Amino acid sequence: MSKNKIIFHIDINAFFASVEQANNPSLKNKPIVVAGKTKRSVVSCPNYVARKFGIKAAMPIFQAKSLCKNLIIVSHKFHLYEEYSEKFINLLSEKVSNRIEYISLDECYMDVTNLVTEKRTPLVIAQKIQNLVKKELGLGTSIGISYNKFLSKMGSDYKKPMGITQIFTKSDLESIIWPQPIGNMYFVGKSSEKYLIENGIKTIGDLANTKDYELLESIFGKNWKHFIENANGVGEDELNYSYGEPKSVSVSKTLLNDTDDFSEIKVNIKEFTKEIAERLSHYDLVGKTLSVYVKDPEFKLHTKNKTLKNYIGNYDQMLVIFLEMYERYFIDMKVRLVGVGISNLISKEPEICSELFDKKQNKRAHKKDLNDIVDEINHKFSRNILKVASKSK
DNA sequence: TCTGGGGTCCTAGGACCC
DNA sequence: TCTGGGGTCCTAGGACCC
User: Fold this and answer.
1) Distance from residue A78's CA to nucleotide C13's C1', rounded to whole Å
2) What is the pTM of this model?
3) Rounded CA gap, A325 and A343, in Å?
């Protein structure tokens, strides 16, 4: 078991709600949730005042309201969250370290192995980060500290808000991680939780000490070993610094009322297709597998996929196929949600590519050359990201 | 009055090719 | 009378994450 590294997991507490409060101080100390405004909306993010009433993420809004009469509902401002997220990452890169693996808008890993000295302990660094993010952005953070990613992630979950949890020794593992219910474990969701409990595995400690490997494989599939290793404090400690492009793009919406009216569906699919075309062109991607999916009134999801011979990405091409697929498979169905998406994505010979072709004085690249070029682009891309992340003033 | 949306990864089964 | 087997791609569904 390698314990050479010091990995932080840094998590912004109640991110959407905290940004709203930082942006509008009159919301402080009041019960708020960030959520949609229709009758079918659910809570995206409750603040800590709202959580005291039992309100949780993903709870239907009508239910949240019944728990708290004075609940304030704030609509999403995604651009604002992206802005704060960027500031958060830039602040850390600039003032602490740019050895950061970005996970989502509100969380990241940081490898601080090389920053630690006699005086500058992991705890001192973590406190500095908390103070910095609080002072500069007005946001609270929880930080987990350990020698691998799994344990630091579990650590940041352990004490919220504004917690710091260190897990280094076997006795830390046994006192902090093992007593927790199995459902608290990262990547153990509702379904696995149910099967594990049925088979007598109620805590993470139970999982760490089970010998029933067949059961684990039947629940977790081919990666089952990672789960038992993680429970025993063994896990990945390499951060991933490359920021990949998306592997699929999709847009969906729950309708105000269930419908089988194709003209209404069509209006939605047109909007979604426009959005997808914009996102694809933003990343310079094209794809060849198109998906249309619906949720029926019983909440069951139905998906149809079609893989084309050629890659496409523009609005007109995609729209024709989406509509044709919808008409073929779902036309008379009552649906509560409709969505479309595209996957099997590749880069659309970007300009950067032709620039490299020219450099090689070779307009018709062979397959092998193409692979070299892709490597070069990836390399260039990740370097640029690091540069962007580390400058910003 | 009635349960979101955007992703990633995995699995099982089938088609097709050699 | 007899119905392989490996590889690859595709589809549909589902678990899980934030």
Assistant:
1) 30
2) 0.87
3) 16
